[in-house]
Amino acid sequence: MKSLGWKTIIATAAVTSLAGLTLAAAPTQAASPVPGSTHVHTAGHTQAPAALSPRELSALPLTDRHLTRHEIANLAVVLNAYHVAEGNSLDPDAFVDSFAKDGVFNDMVAGAAYRGTALGDVPRYMVGLFPDVHRELKRITVNGDTISIELSIQGTFEGPLQSPAGTVKPNGAKVDVPTADFWYLRNGKVEKFNCFVGYTKMYADMGVNIDWASAVNKH
Question: Roughly what angle, to the nearest 10 degrees, separates helices 199-206 and 6-15?
């Protein structure tokens, strides 16, 4: 088990803030699109379906199933953004296309923000770290142009993690990371995506322990 100092852990969180984003599906359909959904392929990437059918909606862990057409369309955009960021269906360009021109992805824990073409680095980096990455959606709340999701980021640590202390070599460990995502849409595009990732749990799953002693002894 490799131990990193407290400052290194914080710096590493910034380096790996891209880990906040990955794929999505209902708990019973992890690592796959919503059942029955139709994705349109143009110019080499995937576009979100215009709507979700009653069967598709019934498979999702929604806290309120009385959604307007506008809310269903917003939910389709978010689910597609997850899908094209998943390990087996990676499409960074389509992920970028989910956002408005001034859209931003905020890693709220690491304090990092991504805009424009840099948005595509988010899923690309995550798949490099966890090639089979996917998300298990646990609770989805849709309220107009705001979608809140409780989920777990899951995958296998098979790509090297670059940290200020050096390279953490992959060890095949399984990660199951508690996460909360908040999506804010405007005119069918993501204006802001705030992601809260449980980095402490993620690093522990990867075999990296926070070294509290270094923080205590620095004084």
Answer: 100
